Amino acid sequence: MNDKTSALSIRDAHLEDVEAVLNLWRAAEATPGVTDTSADLCRAISDSPATVLLAEMDGLLVGSIILAFDGWRGNIYRLAVDPDARRRGVARALVAEVERRLSAQGVKRITALVEKAHPRAMGFWEAVGYRVDERIVRRVRNL
């Protein structure tokens, strides 16, 4: 994957992609969460308002992102890029596709969940125009 001219394609995920996506998240060192299971990812792919997008180069899975519109705002989750494919425009292409799709649904604001402990991720989101909203603190409770 050293050729910077490799063709990048983005597509919707399918159920047969689940294990490859979970492996991508591990390779990308995404912090594991309670929803990082085959069952939860299958649900996101097949019957939720979320859409899981995958990026491929030369037939290899190199990135993923989850988008959702809850009727109020667009949300982005789980942007992950294979370490061997970083700095090649994969993340930017995934975010641009999410923005295109959400805009087509009438979304006016998009929220991206980003882990503060990952400086590379924080820098990326800043570079693509997503600012930290100091007014809001995310609170979570696992069920």
Q: What's the helix and strand layout?
A:
Elements: E1 8-12, H1 18-27, H2 38-46, E2 50-57, E3 60-69, E4 74-81, H3 90-104, E5 110-112, H4 119-127
Report on this model:
The chain is of the alpha+beta class. The protein has one domain (9-127): Aminopeptidase. 30% of the residues lie in helices and 24% in strands. It has four helices and five strands. The protein has helices at 18-27, 38-46, 90-104, 119-127, and strands spanning 8-12, 50-57, 60-69, 74-81, 110-112. It has a five-stranded mixed sheet, sandwiched between helices. Strand 4, helix 3 and strand 5 form a beta-alpha-beta unit. The longest helix is centred in the C-terminal third of the chain and has 15 residues, at 90-104.
List descriptors:
single chain, 143 residues, alpha+beta, Aminopeptidase, five-stranded mixed β-sheet, 30% helix
In CATH, what is the homologous superfamily? Answer: Gcn5-related N-acetyltransferase (GNAT)
Number of strands: 5
What ranges have pLDDT less than 50 throughout 5 or more consecutive residues? none
- Work out the count of structural domains: 1
* DSSP helical segment count: 4
Content-based structural category: alpha+beta
Q: Could you name the CATH topology?
A: Aminopeptidase
Principal-axes shape call: globular
* Percent range for β-strand residues: 15-25%
| Main beta-sheet strand count, sense and barrel state | 5 strands, mixed
Question: What order do the SSEs take from the amino end to the carboxyl end, as H and E?
Answer: EHHEEEHEH
- Specify the CATH architecture: 3-Layer(aba) Sandwich
CA radius of gyration is: 15 Å
Q: Which strand order do you get reading across the main beta sheet?
A: 1-2-3-4-5
Ends: how far apart? 40 Å
